[in-house]
Write a structure and sequence with these properties.
The complex is a heterodimer. Chain A contains no helices and twelve strands. By secondary structure, chain A is mostly beta strands. Chain B contains no helices and ten strands. In chain B, strands 2, 4, 5, 8, 9 and 10 form a six-stranded mixed beta sheet that branches. In chain B, strands 1-3-7-6 form a four-stranded antiparallel beta sheet, with no helix packed on it. Classes of the chains: A mainly beta, B mainly beta.
Chain lengths: 111, 114
Amino acid sequence: GNSVTQMEGPVTLSEEAFLTINCTYTATGYPSLFWYVQYPGEGLQLLLKATKADDKGSNKGFEATYRKETTSFHLEKGSVQVSDSAVYFCALRRNDYKLSFGAGTTVTVRA
Amino acid sequence: GAGVSQSPSNKVTEKGKDVELRCDPISGHTALYWYRQSLGQGLEFLIYFQGNSAPDKSGLPSDRFSAERTGGSVSTLTIQRTQQEDSAVYLCASSTRTGEETQYFGPGTRLLVL
């Protein structure tokens, strides 16, 4: 079946540090891949997505590249801010509508 | 425009009671999804509605769970005879249609069963 594995948190960083959150997936076929973010007290928001191999999704300084050869979709940001403190979820969607989520990674950025 | 809204935002109930959770999707969105976010299971799919088609209930964990969508808009998730393991955040999402469309999530209802 479909599954997503992402690095466990929590992750604590200083402002302007480099952030990487690893995400790997297991799925047959060619899933679409997503990163969702949940800020404190808010609902899940789509951060970025990629729908085919080698696509790069980007938003708010975050990037992730769909790597079919390594079945990965790692999230990166070069210089984090306190406002990036949130829980980040990697997710995949195969050729239907169900999203399969990773366990979530809590990121805390300190000033 | 307005996003997905859910009510109540928090619900505390006693074991054995029934609860109803409400979701108002984004206007014009024909697809509606329920997910559950719990400590032990992470985020899991529960049920999906698309227009007038029969819902996909494959993710409902037991027959105590049911959902309906009236008039193709508002949806209600009902949990009968609640158990402590039902404690979780219940998330609703909607999209313009299925397939490649982005799912937009509501803020969730936090359910605590004592």
